[in-house]
Amino acid sequence: MITEGENDDFTMMRHGKNIKDMDRSFDIEFWQRQGHAAIFDAAFELIHLYCEEYGIHDARIQRTVEHFQRTRG
What we know:
By secondary structure, the chain is mainly α. The protein has helices at 24-34, 36-53; strands at 2-4, 11-13.
């Protein structure tokens, strides 16, 4: 079920009555409606909360170079 606000100021989506009765189709539809920026912001917020919870102050992606070679041509 999808309910729009009077001035399109919000969208409420509801599926089923219990979480155990839900499948992934609701999640997929919800996040597709949000758009790329909202998905990125939500993912960034989860990373930030994880780092706060575990006391990580330097949130960087770990990169390891295994092979480096010059290409010819």
